[in-house]
Amino acid sequence: MSAEPDGPEDRLRRFATIWGRAVFPVTSTSSTRPEFEKQLVPLARRLSEALRARAFDPDTGRAVGAALVEAHCTDPEALSRTLDCVDAYLVLYCGGDGDGEDLRARSARLQHAMAAGYAQALRERTLAEQEAIAQAALRAQGVVAQALHATEARFRAVFEGAAIGIGIADLKGNVLQVNAALLRMFGLSEQSLRGRSVLDWTHPDDAPQTWVLYDELVRGDREHYHLEKAFYRPDGTVLWTNLTVSLLRDADGEPQYQLALMEDTTERRLLNLRLRYEATHDALTGLPNRTFFFERLEKALSAGEGQRFGLCYLDLDGFKTVNDSLGHAAGDRLLVEVADRLQSCATAPGEMVARLGGDEFVALTTGPDTQHTVDELATRIMNALLAPVGVDGRDLTVRGSIGVVEGPAGERSPAEVLRSADITMYRAKSAGGNRFELADPEADARAITRHGLTTALPAALERGEFFIEYQPLVHLGDGSVRGAEALVRWLHPQHGVLSPDRFIPLAEHTGLIVPLGRWVLEQSVRQAHAWRERRGGADVAGPLRINVNLSPCQLAHPGLVQDTVDILERTGVEPDALCLEVTESALIGADDDLLKPLRRLSEMGVDIALDDFGTGYSNLANLRRLPVSVLKLDRSFTQSMQQFPADPVDLKIVEGIVSLAHSLDLAVTVEGVETGAQAEQLRILGCDTAQGWYYARPGPPDRLHELALVDAAG
């Protein structure tokens, strides 16, 4: 038994050996098979490098295809075997650890490029042979009188032994002579082909200039022309050729005959069509793929004035669950069924369906009235998904979210249209799914802005674009400033100052909230230390405390406790000067693992405040198990107290919450206080501290220091 290749070079040589064994039997070369395989190693290396390159370069594939022709692999079977070998073994032996689907797509594109390079090189070689034959024919005709027998022998040898088809006709188009290769191409006998007129060989796929060039040649205005032309065989099949027609003149220079040289390109054309199909269609569903769709979309968007387009971008809801629970094979069968249903929805002229990848599909309609047709198309798609799909004996319910974009041609690029459709589709999905939504330029702009902010967040933290404002916490009993809540802001270079609601959710989503929250905590604690130093260490009305918000992501981060301890130790601030605020919704149903870091911080002396209390519908009895020392009552309970008289129901609710909190030895803080009447009513109800615009808006740290000094002096 031989050992398996254990390194990239071994695997590369193994691939070259397999390739050589497949191609050598149909190669016209004087080399031995080991020598031939050695020639293939550098070609295999180029294919391997192109397969794994960062940017795909089709020139490598074309160069390898041309190199095969130089190595005398000119038999059509050599190309077919080469492509089969590359398709089966290139990714296996040379793909490394890359993404399999992407490598297979690259392999298919490499095969297409190799076929193109092979065809081009073979064509150039054939043209060179054709030119040599034409020159030989001309020389033979020119010296007929001097060496008739010798010239005739040479011409006959070239004429009969050539691998390409050769025919001679007079200037009226009557066929005079044909060689054996031409007879084989057409499947006719010499008797049936002689005497036929060239003018009878028209084909519907003839290029418009075909017969114009022919007329110019027989008039003597042109010496030769070259083009691709199709012919019908007697059995009805089509023969595709590279056709070169040259004019033969007599000794006086007068036009006398026409010489046609034909290369049979039928198999090569079919191969190119097959590779083109594979490169532009999805292997699983048979639908056009992303490449083909973008070609069609670009064509639709560049249509003339008065033309419009409509696009439906579909994403299946919950498809990942199908893959995870039933397996990818079941997911694939579901995708095939969905593709068939979508295909039946887009049968009108100007409509197409494509699969962009995964469970994402797109339907395109074009014409002057797509405002109506695109809505109808989206409705047909939604109706087509109503019936369950049977997979492995289960009836799977199919739901989808569709983003619809419609508009005039010529105003947007394909990328802009698809981005708008994608944004709209996610808007439909976030609204519950199983629906379609129409694109909204304002919603698109907001989504694009959110994306821009998301991508700019990491650099913004590094560049120091964030700053903190502080809103004072006032004791309702004596009006003294007891501390402040730290509120982070983003000074964006383009959008100006952004409030937390604009970027904190984005930071949560990206995970940047952890380093951002750590920065806010350290800056705030340092500021608390600076305030206490400026007060001369006087503990006039209790310690000046700093409140810092903790997001759910920070709460679950394993480094929370250690980061807090490190910051307090570096700044020299006692734990009782810090209060961490956690929203009630983040602690609903929290298990002991989630509460453990809060308990450790509470045991150290750090206060824990339950923020937005009353909005999470939590069980009040759970307060006993939470390591909190402060309740921050949500402003929705106290808004009615801004006017007199206050809502008696709200008064009872607040009174009950305060009583419950105090019975559990919890302090109560109220946010959103905006009037003196509201502050007084909350004082009467027994609330401990408050914050809001009535006292001060969030501002720079010096303002809070001034307020604290005024209180101390009073």
From TrEMBL:
PROSITE patterns: EAL, GGDEF, PAC, PAS. Residues 151-221 form the PAS domain. Residues 307-441 form the GGDEF domain. InterPro entries: Biofilm_reg_signaling, EAL_dom, EAL_sf, GGDEF_dom, Nucleotide_cyclase, PAC, PAS, PAS-assoc_C. GO terms for biological process: regulation of DNA-templated transcription. Coiled coil: none annotated. Residues 450-712 form the EAL domain. It comes from the Bacteria. Residues 225-277 form the PAC domain. CDD domains: EAL, GGDEF, PAS. PANTHER family: BIOFILM ARCHITECTURE MAINTENANCE PROTEIN MBAA, DIGUANYLATE CYCLASE DGCP. This is Diguanylate cyclase/phosphodiesterase with PAS/PAC sensor(S).
